[in-house]
Each structure stands twice: as structure tokens, then as C-alpha cells.
Amino acid sequence: MTKFSSKLLIAFFTLTFAINGISQKLLKPSTPVADSFPVVTGELWYRGSGNTALTKDQLSISENGKKVEYTLALKEFKSAAPKNKRIVFLIENHWLPIGVAERKFFNEVISRGIRNSINPGDQVMVASFDWYRDGKYMYQETNGYTDDISEILSAVSSIKAKSKRNQPQTGSDINQSLMETLRFMNQSNDSILSAIFLFSDEMDNIVGKIQSIDVKIESIKSNIPIYALSYYNASRYGQIIKNEICEPSYGDYYASKSNNVDSSAVKLSMFLDDMIEKNRGSLYTYTYTSQLNKDKQSAELSFEVKSLPNAEKVTLLIPTKSLTEWVIDNKIASIACALGFILLIILIVFYIKQSKKKLLQQKEELQKTQAELQNQAIKADSEKKETDARLLKIQQEQIEKENEIERAKASETAKKEEERLTKLMLLKGAFPKLNYSYQGNNGSIEVNCPVFTIGRETTNMFYIQLNTVSKKHAVIKFHENGTYSITDTGSSNGTMVNGAKISETTLKSGDFIQIGDIGITFQN
After folding, report:
1. In terms of CB atoms within 10 Å, which end of the chain has fewer, N or C?
2. HEC profile of 428-458
3. Coil, strand or helix: which one is 253?
4. Alpha-carbon span 506 to 484, nearest angstrom
5. In the chain, how many H helices and how many E strands?
6. Residue 410: per-residue pLDDT
7. What CA–CA distance (Å, rounded) separates 84 from 188?
8. E strand or H helix at 292, and its extent?
9. Buried b (16+ CB within 10 A) or exposed e, 216-240
10. Which residue ranges of the chain lie beneath pLDDT 50?
11. Half-sphere exposure of 202 (CA within 13 A, CB side)
């Protein structure tokens, strides 16, 4: 069962990679399997493939902080390719005379290279860079990202050299521009495949503090590879960009020494098509022999790649010793346990025999006692029922007397309160009137008590025999401050005052009340 669960875990892990596609992490190990402990096996996915594939020289595996010797094998597996990509074309925009030729070259290369490599749903932004101005190097030439090829080409062709007035620098800074672009792309908090395509002449015009190593680290950490297509005009060409930025970031590099537009455009198209395939990564199987004992519950495995800034960690669940393994490792204790077990069995058998004999005697005595107790219980139960019936009758009579007294008190209190409020109503003047009208029939009725009920039942002070009126429809109350209020008592059709449906509201003289089909004017 354990092996089956472990295999199921591996299958689930592999399927998860296949579905999720590109991950933000460049190295992702699975939970290792320890069914054949101390032999431990597991899988890990790595961003690189081909000439950037993972090797034992790059990878170190540690168990609880101690490095282990392991074997590494590549599996025939790649994660599913993403549908779309996000790209920034970062184009150097020299103000020097050479800038005219460079811009023309980049324009032609991009125009030919992207026509069959930008797909619907892709996100492409065109940006340019030159010297430091307005607190930055990189300038957007398109309004955000787009998949419209005509818009992309229009932005590339419209790049013009900017004025150098009031600028103390003498050239552009490739590293600083790349760093600004990486940080801009990192603002998109999603997992879409991203890359920077740098178009420059690679002239060493470094005026900032950002170095190639900083760009490489930021690129790897962000999982944004950098591709470069260069305008060739220097003898020491491509060493820094290619070796220190492009290849370590899992990008690629090309420079035509003759600045051939056709070959450069083909390379650009290949880079755009290959970046998805290169980003799929590869799955590896690793195996090592643990130096830990089975009495431990878990261990921490750390996977570290030289080119990556952070190590990835997973937990190894170590199985406990089986009974056979424990016996082999503890022979003397096992023999002592066996002898103790045999002695325990003998004692248990002796105890069971004695217990059976004693239980038989106790059973006979118990049966006799139970018969006597049963007779006594029947008699006691009969007497108890009679007593309980008498007590219940007395209690009920007492409760009824107390309730009657309470009802009388409550009635007297309510009567006194009603008399008091009625007197108070009279002190305020004459009783209010309810002037009603229904189908040409008019009339009025005095609100002559503090709690004046209205409804279809004859017990109401204002009895209205209409189907649209509820049995207990509403109540008008007098308050000690001399005001009157009306409350709807949950009627079916509701109570309206001055055209608005209410649950409770204060009444003023002249207010119009609608109860069912009858209209009433409150006159105070």
C-alpha cells in the first residue's frame, strides 16, 4: 500500500507539472520516495534543457545540511508549452551618426523576423534606450503590450534619436536599461512566459552602477531570459552580453559580422519560436543512499544549483522500522519479550479458569437476588406511581392558583395603566378621531383608549369587515409625551401612511392611513 501511495504521488507530481506548464521557479523538486530506505529516489524539474541542461557539476543535494553522493538521470519529459508569450523589444537609440544605420538595421530585422512568430494573444512592447534622462534610461515606444504586428512595426520604425542637450552623459548604459526593463516586466504579477530581446551595438558606454552580474541575477530570479541581436561594429564583440547575460539567463545571442539583415531576421524568428520550447524545461530522476536511521521521522533535503541564487528545499518522510528489523537489531530484548509473553499467556489461562468458576457461583447468587429485587421493584414502582400522581395533581392545582393570581394582578395593573393613560389622553384634549371612507360611505370613530386595535376580527376596537383587512391589522398607541403612533402587526396587505408602506411610525393630525381598501384620516 505504501509503494502504491508513493507511486501515485509521483504520478500526481508529474501530471501537475504537465498541466501547470511554466513555473516562476527555475528548479522545482518533488517530495522524495523512501520505500526502499535507506535508498531514496525523487524527481526534480529544471528550467534548462539542451546546452543548458542540468549536470552533476552544477547541482548539489544535501540531507539535513550534509551533502550526499547521488545519481542523476534525465527523463523523457517536458512540461506543457504555454500558449502565449510576453516580450519587450529593447532597442538602442544612439544620437551619434552610427545610430541612423543601427536603427535602419534593427527596423529591417524586426520587420522581417516577427511576421510569422507573433501570435494572437502574445504581449509585445517596444522600448528604446539611450543616455540617462528624466531619471531613467528605458522609454516605452508602444502604449503598453500589444499583439498587433502593424502597431509593433510602426513603433519600431518611428524611433528617432533624441536631443542630447543639457545631458552630461556621453552614451547609453545597456546594463541599467536591462535592469529597468526587468523591473518593469516584474510588475506583471502572473506566470506568463516572458523575455527581453536586446538590440544594441554593445559599445561599453557604462555610466551607471549596475553590472552584468546584477542583470544576470535579476533575470534568473525573475525567470525572464534575455536574448540579444547585435549590430556588429567592435572587435571585442559579444563576450559580455553573450557569456555574462544571455546564456546564464537561459536566453540566446546572435551577431552577424557583416550585419546581414536576412540571417539576423531568421535568428530573431528562431529565438521567438524556440523561447517557448526552451522554457518547458526537463524532468530528472535522482537517487542516493541516506545515512540516517529509520527511527527519525523526517529530514530536510536541499537542492542547490550554482547559477541560481536560492536553494529549493523539500521534506523527506523516513519510514519507521518494521517488526522484523527491530527484532534483528535487538535480539536480547526480543528473547526477553518472547519469554515474558509466554509467561503472560500461562497466567492469563489460569486466571480465566478461576474466573469462570467464581463467575458461575456469582451467577447463581445473582439470579436469586435479582428475583427478590424484581418483586420489590414492582411493588415500589406501583407505590411511586400513586404518590407521583397525587403530587402532580397538587402541583397543578397550586400552579393554576398562582397563575390565576398573576393574571388577576396583571389584569388589574393593565386596567390601572389603561385608566391612567386614558385620563392623560383626556388631559391632552378630546380623543383623536379616525375619519374613514369606503365606496362612498363615510364615518368616524374615536381613538378612546391608549391601545386602539384595528382589524377584521370583532374583538378589535375598530372592526372592519373587509377581506383586504387582516384579522389583527394594525394598532394605534398613545404615548406619555402626548404623541400617537401606528404599528403594522404583520398584516398581509400592509399598512400605508401618506402613501408609504410602514412597519411603525408617529402619527400627525391629517395623516392619511390606508388599511386594505379603506382610507382613514387621523384627526387629533
Report:
1. N
2. CCCCCEEEEEECCEEEEEECCCCEEEEECCC
3. strand
4. 6
5. 9, 25
6. 84
7. 15
8. none
9. bbbbbebbbbbbbbbbbeeeebbeb
10. 1-24, 235
11. 24
Residue whose C-alpha cell reads 547575460 in the numeric block: 245
Q: Are 118 and 156 in contact (CB under 8 A)?
A: no
Q: Which cell numbers hold the place of 389?
A: 400522581
438 by Cβ neighbours in 10 Å (0-12 / 13-18 / 19+) ranks as middle
Residue pair 96/131 in contact (Cβ under 8 Å)? The answer is no
pTM of the model: 0.51
User: CA-to-CA distance for 30 and 33, rounded, in angstroms?
Assistant: 9
Joined together, the cell numbers standing for residue 280 give 518547458
Contact predicate 41/26, CB 8 Å: no
Which residues lie below 8 Å from residue 197, measured CB to CB, with a gap of 6+?
A: 87, 88, 89, 90, 227, 228, 229, 268, 271
DSSP secondary-structure letter at 33? B
How far, in whole angstroms, is CA 110 from its chain's centroid?
41
Burial class (CB in 10 A: 0-12, 13-18, 19+), 87: buried
> Tens digits of per-residue pLDDT, 364-393?
888 888 888 888 888 888 888 888 888 988
Answer for the pair 502, 486: CB distance below 8 angstroms, yes or no. yes
